[in-house]
Amino acid sequence: MPRPRCERCQRPLDHCLCPLIPSLDSRTRVVLLQHPSESSHALNTARLAALGLVNAQLRVGEVFDDLVELLQTPGYRPALLFPGEHAQVLTAYGEVDDRPLLLIVPDGTWRKARKLLYLNPLLEALPRVTLGAVAPSRYRLRKAPEPGALSTLEAVVEALNVLEQPVSFDALLKPFEALIEGQIKAMGAETFQRNHGTP
Question: Which residues form a coiled coil (predicted)?
Answer without folding.
Answer: none
